[in-house]
User: What shape does this take?
Amino acid sequence: MKRAVIDSKVTLCMLAFAACGRACTGGFEADGGRDSGGDGAMIVQAISAGHHHTCAVVSGGARCWGWNRQGRLGGGAGRSGSTPFQPTPVQVVGLTSGVTSISAGIAQSDGRDDARTCAIVNGAARCWGVNDFGQLGDGTTTERGTPVQVAGLTSRVTSISSGGTHTCAIVNGGARCWAVNDYGQLGDGSITNTDRGAPVQVVGLTSGVTSISAGGAHACAIVAGGARCWGSNSFGKLGDGTSANRNTPVQVVGLTSGVTSISAGSYHACAIVDGGARCWGNNEDGELGDGTSASRNTPVQVVGLTSGVTGIAVGAMHTCAIVNGGARCWGNNNLGELGDGTVTNRSTPVQVVGLAAGVTSITAGHYDTCAIVNGGARCWGSNGYGQLGDGTTTERRTPVAVAFPTP
Assistant: This one.
């Protein structure tokens, strides 16, 4: 199966209240997540779509919605909880302030659903959800329905990314990863079936790391302006011109400078380079955006996106970007995740309906997508577990508003 990410990554699309106007349901307003400029308006500062769930940083606190299997929503109920899914945002226990970043985990590259969520809270890393391979980094394999401290990462954490089998973070400018390492995705120079229940240092990346993204069974980072990747290299997703797995970081061909953003999925990856978008890896559904369905083991230019790109996000089998303030997507569209009002796959970028301006962040999940628009959240695509956050489980082919609680 292809990419479960960024990933990976069924998403936080819970915006569907747009179709309901100003009506309220269960105490949630249709446009409750939108910054209308009024007193007490909830401001969405970050958003991340995972595998059948979505999470966001809202006014400094963390909220999640969608499937609650294995406690990935952080509300205290897990595998045997009485609430299997939440179609509107719920408060993550203990994280009401100080949250600056959040990452909703994707599915593994083999399709196994072992999702969890991680966040940066007052400079420290905390995670919750599945933990059978040490994905939470707390030194145990105990599932957690509420956040726990990642061992050793109590300060100076500036970025965190939950992949399919592992988690990575930037700590004091260096990269560290933990959990499964069967393809070398931890980057510590080994390939082993012995899981790492606490963070290990990525070889050679002790400083200068400005961005990191964990995919299905690989990871990529920006180091001194260049792109490097490691782990599984199926479909050439490491971008080094080969299909050989790597247990330490390798240089992505041609991306030695000018890289400002990077996103790793289950089977492909993309980056912003000198303001343009480039992608590599699997391309069965056109997710590389080069107008073909041919997989690539080195980066190719996304058609039409040579400048003005300020954000990029890789999903399971689709990709989205922010271009001159608007949202565009391409790749698989079986469940409306491209947001163009159809279910037609696209091998070049198409405009997301209604999002021509005001987009400041975008995230691609498994079969859904979410964006921050003028301070509020909009989502579209798959919604079988309520991952769009609009209070329903109805699939949406165009963006809807996430129904945050009324302040």
User: Anything to note?
Assistant: Residues 1-39 have pLDDT under 50 and may be disordered.
